[in-house]
Amino acid sequence: MEIFQQVLLLIAGLGVFLYGMKMMSDSLENIAGNQIKTLFSKITSNKIVGVGVGLTTTAVIQSSSAVTVMLIGFVNAGLMTLEQVPSIIFGANIGTTVTAILVAVGFSGSSFSISTLFASLTGIGALAMMFTKKDKVKKVCTLFVGLGMLFLGLDVMGESMGSVGEQYSHLFANIQNEFLLLLIGIVFTAIIQSSSAASGIFITMTVAGMLTLEQSLYLIIGSNIGTCVTALIASIGGSINAKRTALLHLNIKIFGTIFFMLFLLIPGVDFANWMRALAPGNDAMQVALVHTIFNVAATIVLLPFSKWLVKLSCKMLPEKNNGKVQSDIPHLYYFEKHMMSTPIVAMDYLKKEVVNMGNLARTNLNLSVEGFIQKDSKHIEEILKREKELDYLSKEIPKIIVQLSNADQLSLLDKKIIGSYYHVVTDFERIGDYAENITEYTETAIKEDTTISEDAISEIKQMKASVDHVYDLAMDIFQNAKVEFMDELNMHEEEVDKEKEVMAYKHISRLREGRCTAEAGALYLNMSNDLERVADHMCNIADSIKNFKNYKQNK
């Protein structure tokens, strides 16, 4: 019964440890996410700088998986090239070992446990959170709680493993095959999807006497491959570059493992004893050093071959259709499901989808008006196909909005901004509907052989030019949060309203003079009404950012 209780405590400690790590990672990502995005967007082709950026960002947010997702997003958007990715991944691999060092430090000390000191942050953070209403302070408190829970879980696991290890250490003693240990490390890390968490667990088991340093060595190396599963899963259904980035991450880990395993086979190399010499008497630090040295060594050996690794990934996943995406099925253009795991990044790509929807609606508007003026139906099929895309996006984007609005990593302001996109999507969808209406006017004019006078065509062109100006200005305001241009926008929208009134007056004059038919006049007035409504919707879209004038989201 005592052993059973210790096993339950072990499971409880593991749960607290894993949840604490996730909470800490999420809160760090929330605090530093925007700064990291800015840093990534300015990255150069300098490999050393790339390693430094990857190391720093991963050490800060304690999640190489989150960094990989960010990389996938930036490559997809064309903000980074695939050639810039390897150096950042190398840096991220080193940065993710910080957790192992922290865990090892937590196990150090004799009369006083540093782990217990860190664990107390759980209570400190929770109490502070109860007495503050400031969003920024709450983020820091959540970080403290997560960090404290990580060490609290380690304490519980350490104590329970001490008892369980005495009884069941023989189970692990029989596992001595290096490749089997490597496989166990891969599978275990793939299941929990965190090499940082896996290394923390292996350290705890080593300190408890359940594993030897030699066994932990191969488990740690295997965990470095297993962590790639997160990126591989994230890339499923993504673009070719998303898959190449995930594959590049996996190839780096595999080649690093191959070189390291070959190094261990060299006569006279006793890596485990070297670690014992570096940290004598400190089992936890010895295992942590294995994790760190492996990734540093892999970086030194493989960094010069970055271009070759990129070419290998491209050959393994060649471009299809000569790089041209050909699909008649409506789809999202920028956003991919894996981005949900990193809401800070997902928020940017959600906005790209909304902006793209506006561009699609505008293309349809331009083609439909051109078809009406030319009395030409050649673009109608293309317009209707794009209208189906707009309808699809108007259903899919709100789903993303709902999911992101529930993300804990985003601030209240971020969530309000995301919520405002819901109405923007509706406005763009309505503009697409007006373009579809105009194609119907064109079909009617062709079918009934209705002739629109040259004066009327000239007036339609003039009004369309005014609407174009409103569209340009509104999109600039929406994309770049240029609230200072709202007055100018409203002034131009009022001009469109006046043009509509003038067009109605001129139509009546032409009708009285017999220079226009009732059928032609109906199409003419419908056109002016639809164009005026487009301008109204664009004002609504620009108006959606008025509450966020201090938030610059020019991404």
- The SSE order reads HHHHHHHHHHHHHHHHHHHHHH
**How many beta-strand segments?**
0
Radius of gyration: 30 Å
* Residue runs with pLDDT of under 50 for 5 or more positions: 321-327, 550-555
Q: What amount of the residues lies in strands?
A: under 5%
What structural class do helix, strand and pairing data support? mainly alpha
Please tell me the overall pLDDT: 81
Major sheet:
none
What is the overall number of helices?
22
Estimate percent helicity: over 70%
End-to-end separation in angstroms reads: 59 Å
Shape: elongated
Describe the overall structure.
- The protein is mainly alpha-helical and 555 residues long.
- It has 22 helices and no strands.
- α3 (64-76) crosses α13 (240-264), α4 runs antiparallel to α15 and α12 (228-235) runs antiparallel to α13.
- The two termini are 59 Å apart.
- It has helices spanning 2-41, 47-61, 64-76, 85-95, 98-107, 114-119, 121-130, 135-173, 178-192, 195-207, 213-226, 228-235, 240-264, 271-278, 283-302, 306-316, 343-374, 380-405, 412-447, 454-480, 486-512, 518-543.
Blueprint (SSEs and pairs):
Layout lengths: L1 H40 L5 H15 L2 H13 L8 H11 L2 H10 L6 H6 L1 H10 L4 H39 L4 H15 L2 H13 L5 H14 L1 H8 L4 H25 L6 H8 L4 H20 L3 H11 L26 H32 L5 H26 L6 H36 L6 H27 L5 H27 L5 H26 L12
Helix pairs in contact: 1-2, 1-3, 1-8, 2-4, 3-4, 3-12, 3-13, 4-13, 4-15, 5-10, 5-15, 7-8, 8-10, 9-11, 10-11, 10-15, 11-13, 11-15, 12-13, 13-15, 13-16, 14-15, 17-18, 17-19, 17-20, 18-19, 19-22, 20-21, 20-22, 21-22
